[in-house]
Every structure is written in structure tokens, then in C-alpha cells.
Amino acid sequence: MPLEPKPADLPRIPGALRLYQVSSIITGVLLLLLCAEVIAKYFFGTELEGGGPNGLLALVPEGTVTAVNLSTGLLIVHGWFYVLYLFADFRLWSIMRWPFLTFLVIALGGIIPFLSFFLEVKVGQRVKAYLAAHPVASVESGVSA
């Protein structure tokens, strides 16, 4: 018999789901930008520069960035949002008491392009279906079916 959330945790589910969904979308967008940056850098030999002599945003040859290196900044920002994504994944996973493999699959959403968008929908549907089947959780947390 699979584990279910503890009754005391039911009011925390909607907030955990919202945090997961927001962090999933942000991390997914940043990952796609990061993929575009990697393609620009390794296939075309360019980096993204911000606020330099070429304007607000400019693609410059690799190694010639004189202002803010937005390519490096994008790596850092994605890394920190991936940490938030993992926290949100862990929080939702632990409240819902899912198998550990589910945690690992969701965690892959932050490193495989487009997977976070797919998982955000699937996980959201799964949690909302659970909340709809447990109206006590919905009434206590203010979520409508």
C-alpha cells in the first residue's frame, strides 16, 4: 500500500505545490537560456556581454568580454534557482510521501531541457487530483476543486 500524506500535512500541500510550480518554470526557462548560451559559445564562439561598448546586450567573440559577462551570470543564476527547485521538489515529495524514484525524476527536470515544463504539468495534475479526492484538505487550505 503506497504511503499518503499525513493529515497534519494536508494544509501545506497547496503552498508546496505553488513553490514547486513557480521554481519549475523559472528553472526551465533559465535552463533553455543556458542551452542557447552554450550553443552560442561552443558552436559560434560568442559570449553574451552586458553594458559594454557594443551596447546593452551584445554577442562578442569568446574571451573579449570587457563589461559584465552575462554568460557566466546565467550559469550562476540557473545554479541557484536549481537549488531552489531541488528544495521545492524535496518539500513536495516529502509532504506527499512519494517513492524516492519520484524525487529523482523530478530533480532531473532542472538539468534536462523541457522536462521541467512537462513535469510541472504532470506533478500539478497528480497533486490536484489528490486534493480533489480529499476535500478535507481542500477546505482547510482554501483550495477550490
TrEMBL record:
<dbReference type="InterPro" id="IPR023845">
    <property type="entry name" value="DUF3817_TM"/>
</dbReference>
<keyword id="KW-0472">Membrane</keyword>
<feature type="domain" description="DUF3817">
    <location>
        <begin position="17"/>
        <end position="123"/>
    </location>
</feature>
<keyword id="KW-1133">Transmembrane helix</keyword>
<keyword id="KW-1003">Cell membrane</keyword>
<protein>
    <submittedName>
        <fullName>DUF3817 domain-containing protein</fullName>
    </submittedName>
</protein>
<keyword id="KW-0812">Transmembrane</keyword>
<feature type="transmembrane region" description="Helical">
    <location>
        <begin position="64"/>
        <end position="88"/>
    </location>
</feature>
<dbReference type="Pfam" id="PF12823">
    <property type="entry name" value="DUF3817"/>
</dbReference>
<feature type="transmembrane region" description="Helical">
    <location>
        <begin position="20"/>
        <end position="44"/>
    </location>
</feature>
<dbReference type="GO" id="GO:0005886">
    <property type="term" value="C:plasma membrane"/>
</dbReference>
<feature type="transmembrane region" description="Helical">
    <location>
        <begin position="100"/>
        <end position="119"/>
    </location>
</feature>
